[in-house]
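Figure S7 source data.
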Amino acid sequence: MKNLLQEADNLVFMQSLPEASCDLIYVDPPFWTGKQRTSARSPNGYDDRWPDDIADYLAFMEPRLKEMHRLLSERGSLYVHLDWRAVHYVKVLLDRIFGRENFLNEIIWAYRTGGVGKRWFSRKHDTILLYARHAGRHIFNAQREGEFRTDGLKQDENGRLYKSTKKGRLYFHADGPTMTDVWDIPFLSTVSLERTGYPSQKPLALLERIIRASSNPGDVVADFFCGSGTTLVAAAKLNRRWIGCDRGEEACDIARKRLAELQTKANA
Ligand SMILES: C[S@@+](CC[C@H](N)C(=O)[O-])C[C@H]1O[C@@H](n2cnc3c(N)ncnc32)[C@H](O)[C@@H]1O
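Tokens for the predicted S-adenosylmethionine complex:
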């Protein structure tokens, strides 16, 4: 499969792709905010208004999530990025489509942005649901970050830290502890150089982490709500093949520009 960015409704587009053609799918759909999401750079932005209640939103999501299930390869995974508004409803839907046994993680992406809650705790996290096409056969490269607590540890003759246990020396991995399901990644600030001006753009660091964990070089990474193309740029940087789709002209223009800039840098 060649790299591809399609301006289209994602349901029609996904139906045109062959079964099991994607190794990793990440999607960041509208969050059911009830608002038109716009910005100066993208005056049309995208529509997140729904005629009635959550049922309309779920009726939109269900056939699309079913297509994603069909498109995943045997070793593939799906990440669905949402927040407190719709995530619990979509979890129930995904359990039905994927089977509860294939649910791997509820990832909490915690961040600090402006705006504080005065009548409830400030809402400062998104939730990313992770499902495998077949749990156990899925690709997973454990990631590491941070540092172990080193107080009370001993040092061996080569300076490596260890703890004495009944079974002998317990060594600590040089790259730190394995990552948990709570991720502390900064939100894109209003002045970030990475910012394209597209509403709801996600940080590259978030997508790079997901792609490293759930795919290998050469694999096909897809995002069918790709917006400004963050997933596609992260995939290209990490030598994965990519497929993107968005129904917005402004989104696709920005994504194409970002991908072209990356290519220019690579050729320089
Ligand atoms: C939250 S934004 C994605 C932002 C993206 N993750 C980024 O980093 O820029 C959601 C995107 O879904 C797109 N979208 C909504 N419904 C769609 C549909 N039926 N087909 C294709 N794209 C759709 C919108 O145009 C919007 O760009």
